[in-house]
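Risk register update: the risk that structure generation would not scale has been downgraded. Supporting records follow, first protein first.
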Amino acid sequence: MIIVYSLSATGVQIDTLSIQDALPSGCIWLDVVEPDDSERAWLDQYFLEEVPDTEDLDEIEATSRFFMDKDGLHILSLFPHRAGKEVRNINVSFNLRNDILITLRDDEVGLFRLVRNYLKRQQLEVQTPLEIMIRLFTAKVDYLADLLEEVYESLEESSQMALRDESGERDAVLKNITIQEGFNGQIRLNLMDSQRSMRFLARNSRALMGDSQLLELKEMLRDIDSLLPHTSFLFDKINFLMDATMGFSNLEQGRIIKIFSIAAVVFLPPTVIASAYGMNFEIMPELNWAYGYPMALGMMLMSAMGTYLFFKIRGWL
């Protein structure tokens, strides 16, 4: 899908193009989503160098993610996208030029829809491609901060559940802690990638920036610097909750094993007595005694009670 954003007298006009169309006048943003081969061939006419393909979007080397060539400035940056309870990082290719911003991605990103709706409702004022790029990154940093708050709230709920002495909830707690650890890792990776992107943009686009735009970039970098320690704190909290939950599980298992151990010791003396009178010896005076059976039962009961009272007095129960 090819979406174009053009400046008009009433604001920003948004249109969807086909491969038979040409870019309208005043176009400042060309957004290409999940392009097929024909759309990539159409896009090729606007590039002096090669159009990034799927493999290029997955590169992790800094020289492949941040560089300049004949087409202008290139930044490959991660953007978070939430689908249900899953958060994924999606690579978006930015090509910033003096007159147009070209973005290319192989999947939909919710933040792009959000900015598109703001532009439709004229809730954002943009005049240059650089301003659009800054708005996208501002929306990303704000969304990452919201995700961090959600992770923190979810971990607080898990910590309350972990403190309850209810073994049935521990599986749910462990599952949620694992999910939040994954979320926090995705957020931290995204923040670090955004930090590198913003620094590269600030270094190499000074000619396109006004004082207000440079100030916005610096504020975003300060926001990222303040959010990164939160991710480290959350990793520590996740590790603590994981250890605490596993500790409670081990304590419960220890109590169960203790009960079985004490039961085995309590019933050991009666077992010895029953084994003795179960022997097939001819000379056992109690076998012919009328009170032999009640006596054996009484000995077994007293030996069990004596062992139990001994454990109780010593404080082992």
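Supporting record for the second protein:
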Amino acid sequence: MFFIFVSSINLNAQIDVKGKVKNQSNNRANNKVDKTIDQGLNKVEDGVKNLFKKKKKTESNDEQVEQNEEPKSEVQEQVKPISAGTPSLAAYSKFDFVPGEKVIFYEDFSQDAIGDFPALWNTNGSGEVVNTNLYPGNWLKYVMRESIWTDKLLTLPDNYTLEFDVIPIEGTEGGMGGWSFRLMKCINQKSWDGGAVPGNAGFQFGVEYFGRPNYRAYNNKLDGQFWDQKGYNEDDKIKQKKDQKYHMSIWVQKTRVRVYQNETKLFDVPRAFPDPEVKMDRLRFEANAAMISNIRIAVGAPDMRNKLMTEGKLVTYGIYFDVNKDVVKPESYGTLKDIATVLNEVPDVKVKIVGHTDADGADAANLDLSKRRAASVKAELAKSFGVNSDRLVTDGMGESQPVAPNDTPVNKALNRRVEFIKQ
């Protein structure tokens, strides 16, 4: 059983004990409360028993919806988002990130049982797979000062993109613990590399306990000398907050690394990997406290014009949707913008937009969802990018045309796609 503090409940509004209750609520993680106020807080917590829900597979393609679970004997606390709603596509107007064309690594922990440590990862600390009614899907949750890493080494080319969702949560000291992520060239293939600059080389991105993002790029064997580069982003508007979800995007082009948080570019480091011969081969998440999911690595910059105009078919994995819905997510902006540029340069060409799903769920539901998603893509291209909608027709194939077996998260991710077919 894991616990996350419900940070957004207004305890003062429900218990009329002024300063003391406020202090008590902040310190409960450290068990520094007196008996009287602790009883009052427990009564408030009884009102949020049902925040947790368990997953129930329904007639959807690759997503899951949730059903209320009967409350258990212990109060189950849950993260609560600071702000509701999804940013509009227009908010991403300066977002130039375009994910790679082919998915080579995908992890959403869907193959792991709730409460277990994920099978394809390793750790010198602890972690567990959890789910939540507020953010659908399975999440890897950790609260510790150690590391969790990919057990199998990655084979990465010169150019690739990496994305994941992260929710900073309460750490061991109370309040947001901060978190850290690292791409590295490991030394110990079957264990972990310790120290502040582990492995032969690496790129670390971190968020401090007060929300400030930072990075460190290093190489321990560059011409026999240590190479190190660090940076911070001091903009208060982009500081991360506890219990709020962020979409992180990393774009690697040989020595250059760009890091995005939601729609904002945080860092653009031209020589993050000064020795192009040193290829990163391990993904690692580190101290202090976070929930991680939807980790996606893809390779190959999509040549959209050539694919569509010459080959007659463009397959894209860079258009995203919320769980079980047909609403285009705003991080799709870079991909949609590039596609719209091609379409607007050749105004006489007509295109069919076709949605595809994986095989999870019922055939009929998958077919319906794929059709609705294709229609949403058409609507966004017309509304947000000025593409003449008369040139666009839509269809959906559901799960009927897989490009890979539906047996692993990576293969399922390959089957979830949108195709543009020249007419």
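Residues 304-422 form a domain with the 60s Ribosomal Protein L30; Chain: A; fold (CATH 3.30.1330.60). On this basis the risk owner (M.S.) recommends closing the item.
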